[in-house]
Amino acid sequence: MPEPFSPAQLLYIGMEVAIAVTSVVGNVMVVWAVKINRSLRDTTFCFIVSLALADIAVGALVIPLAITISIGLQTHFYSCLLVACTVLVLTQSSILALLAIAVDRYLRVKIPTSYRRVVTPRRAGLAVVLCWTVAFIVGLTPMLGWNNLSGLRENGSISPDLVITCQFENVISMDYMVYFNFFGWVLPPLLLMLVIYAEIFYMIHKHLNKKKGAGGHSDPHKYYDKELNLAKSLALVLFLFAVSWLPLHILNCITLFCPHCQTPMFLLYIAILLTHGNSAVNPIVYAFRIKKFRTAFQKIWEQYFCCKDVSALEMQASERKEMPEPDPRQAAAPPPPLLLKDMPNNGPPKPQSPTPRHPLELGPKQALSILEQNSV
């Protein structure tokens, strides 16, 4: 008869279930939002979808397996190792997706006029495939032999039929986790992303300060304002990822470099919950920080959960998007309407100058149309 769960285990399992549900629902909404909103079908959001798919797998697959492991299930060594490697693959895919997003935003700011020519949808798709390929290679390396099987055989803590109590530290080598995974594939990408975002903010502020010094608010100013807001949101995603994953890697370093140090179980539980919770927070960041996601989430909620017809609202939004933004000088002095007094008795009505309705007819915007196309 299995032992009853302790209050700490029950609390841990309850929080894991809540995180799993939130992660799956939130990240499905992210993928759904990109599907229904054409303006989100962009290279940056292609990488965001890749990140969301990894987070969906964490909620639907990794967390249930983590709960199973926490119970102390007796399994075959390689079955338990495969479960642990699945976590590593998804973690690495998230890191590489965040790196791809950072590089994409850097190119948008560095080469705004030629960005569309350099970063094509085909190249973005190849980048996503490359990220997942590297993630599988890094995450499945323990399956090729860099694991704890030889150590367990030496100390006699594994049966001849290779059945063990399935726990992460029982099957994964701490040498691999610290030297290869953390020092090789987690810490360097995080530091590189930190440098990239610092450079992005520097370039954007330099452009904004240049425009302020020149006076006025032009379209390039609006473009870099949008880039700044989106860069802040994605940098926040990166910051939350680092905060969520670094504690567990620090505990791994303590386990390797100080084998006699005892790590309290509640600290380990907190570190594991932080890593899983990171998969649930990204959709919340998108909803509060990125207007296009917020609008798409609202439409999904109203149409599919509240059973409201939002086709009319979508048509109005589409029409507003197609209409050019009015020039402030024209808005301040609109052309007068045609009145009866403008129609003299002995002649035709006075001609009225046509109001430009197409973006190409708006002089100040025509030269900056490439920047507007690249804006997200």
From TrEMBL:
Q: Name one GO cellular component term.
A: synapse
Alphabetical list of PANTHER family matching this protein: ADENOSINE RECEPTOR A1-RELATED (PTHR24246:SF54), OLFACTORY RECEPTOR AND ADENOSINE RECEPTOR (PTHR24246)
Its record classes its membrane topology as: Multi-pass membrane protein
Q: Which family does it belong to?
A: Belongs to the G-protein coupled receptor 1 family.
PROSITE patterns tied to this protein: G_PROTEIN_RECEP_F1_1 (PS00237), G_PROTEIN_RECEP_F1_2 (PS50262)
Q: What does this protein do?
A: Receptor for adenosine. The activity of this receptor is mediated by G proteins which inhibit adenylyl cyclase.
Q: Where is the composition biased (Pro residues)?
A: 346-357
Q: Where is the composition biased (Basic and acidic residues)?
A: 319-328
Name under which the protein is recorded: Adenosine receptor A1
Question: What gene name is given for the protein in this entry?
Answer: LOC115549681
Q: Name one GO molecular function term.
A: G protein-coupled adenosine receptor activity
Annotated membrane-spanning segments are: 12-34, 46-70, 76-103, 124-146, 182-204, 228-246, 266-288
Does the keyword section mention Oxidoreductase? no
Q: Where in the cell is it found?
A: Cell membrane
**Organism the protein comes from:** Gadus morhua (Atlantic cod)
G-protein coupled receptors family 1 profile domain location is 26-286
Region ranges (Disordered): 319-376
Write the record's keywords in alphabetical order, separated by commas.
Answer: Cell membrane, Disulfide bond, G-protein coupled receptor, Glycoprotein, Lipoprotein, Membrane, Palmitate, Receptor, Transducer, Transmembrane, Transmembrane helix
Q: Which domain of life is it from?
A: Eukaryota
